[in-house]
Amino acid sequence: MGRWQDVCGDKLVSIEDALQVIRPGQTVGIGVNANAPEFLCRALAERIQDWDDLEIIGGAAMHDLGFYTPQGASHLTVRDIFITAPTRLAMRAGSVDFLPLNAARWPCDVLDGSRPLDVYLISVSPPDEHGYCSFGFMLWASLDMAESAKVVIAEVDEDHIVTYGENYIHLSQLDYLVEKQGESTLGDVASVMGYEAPSEVDRTIARYAADLIRDGDSLQIGAGTVSMAVIEHLHGKNDLGLHSELCPTGVAPLIAAGNINGKFKPLHRHKAICTALMGDEFSLDFAHRNPAIELYRMSYTNNPLRIAQHDYLTAINNALSIDLTGQVAAEALEPHMYSGVGGQLEFTIGAMLADHGRAVTVLPATAKQGTLSRIVPLHAEGTVVSVPRTYVNYVITEYGTVNLLGKSQRERAELLISIAHPDFRDGLRTAAKRLYWP
């Protein structure tokens, strides 16, 4: 096969020529997270003064692409579906607006006809001999967005891995292709996203969570230092499956060793299913053209009806805080968005509807060097609740595991106080008596 450029014909253009299709007042979608075409985005940001009233929809930025500045905000509106370190300060400054979503319905709830997607910017692998490009190690809603957009501009990244499932798009569906203009500044996804190496507290919580995982379980593992630490404790488990939004670092060695083999999965047996890989170099090399791993769009992986078909599903997700009724806050610090909705609620509901399913919420007992309890009497005014109390099952801190399912309000409070940091238990009991049984 010749160079990939030879099969593109007049679709292969310069970045400058590709961006000429954008007009003032249009809506421009950008691939989420590692699907963002870095050099297309930087060129767009450099010329932002050429457009007025431009709307950009993206999210989970792995670095500052140039949009998140007061100057950029004067020319455009940025709506992000997931807040990361590059966008947190910009959001508080008013340069970024958060777009809540139902991951299983994204993006059709937004692109419903009232807000047409004019242009979509995406990163893809070079087309293969059949004309198909891969979205690499992340899919999210890239295929849906490309299918909805009037014009699709793809930045070709020769370093992209190729993965299976529905993680591909044909050259005929792309209007323009541009070449990547240098080396990407992206590194390991987990580290760029701010997930640090787990602490001893994280590992203690992870051990408790791993004790709830049975041989033969299908797993969903959410993003976060604590939940991803669970993976370290799965090397003694057998015949596990994976149906998850994310496939975090550490899963690939478990697939290679046979701990995760999907033997008992009712759907996609013997396949690890996700919509995005968060991995180191070994994980990405392992996933490249590996039929054991398949990527599907978010509307497929995060659909609670599909999740619930997995008997013995264990879903493990992080929380920032939980109140004594069991309400989980996992995405915001009071009203200030810290991350995003993600698939936590959908996988929690799916696990609770699955036969023998378990939904597990993990969090350290304290924050800010032990000065604040993450178990609180009531969430502060304006706090965003990610998971309602009626769907909260197991809760784990470094002080143990409790099961809130079927428990009364008073019982829930007593159980949660029992796994709070000892320094805060008396205060929580006093508050609980005042609030819940005066």
TrEMBL record:
User: What is any Pfam family matched here?
Assistant: AcetylCoA_hyd_C
InterPro entries from the xrefs? Answer: AcetylCoA_hyd_C (IPR026888), AcetylCoA_hyd_C_sf (IPR038460), ActCoA_hydro (IPR046433), ActCoA_hydro_N (IPR003702), NagB/RpiA_transferase-like (IPR037171)
Query: Does this UniProt record's set of keywords contain Protein transport?
Result: no
| BP GO terms, sorted | acetate metabolic process
Keywords, A to Z, come to:
Transferase
Query: Matching Gene3D superfamilies, A to Z?
Result: 4-hydroxybutyrate coenzyme like domains (3.30.750.70), Acetyl-CoA hydrolase/transferase C-terminal domain (3.40.1080.20), Glutaconate Coenzyme A-transferase (3.40.1080.10)
Output the Gene Ontology terms for molecular function.
acetate CoA-transferase activity
Q: Which domain of life is it from?
A: Bacteria
Q: Does the keyword Phosphoprotein apply?
A: no
Q: Which residues form the Acetyl-CoA hydrolase/transferase N-terminal domain?
A: 79-180
Segments forming domain Acetyl-CoA hydrolase/transferase C-terminal:
284-431
Concerning its family, UniProt says: Belongs to the acetyl-CoA hydrolase/transferase family.
Q: Check the record and name the PANTHER family matching this protein.
A: ACETYL-COA HYDROLASE (PTHR21432:SF20), ACETYL-COA HYDROLASE-RELATED (PTHR21432)
**Name of the protein in its database record:** Uncharacterized protein
Native organism: Entotheonella factor
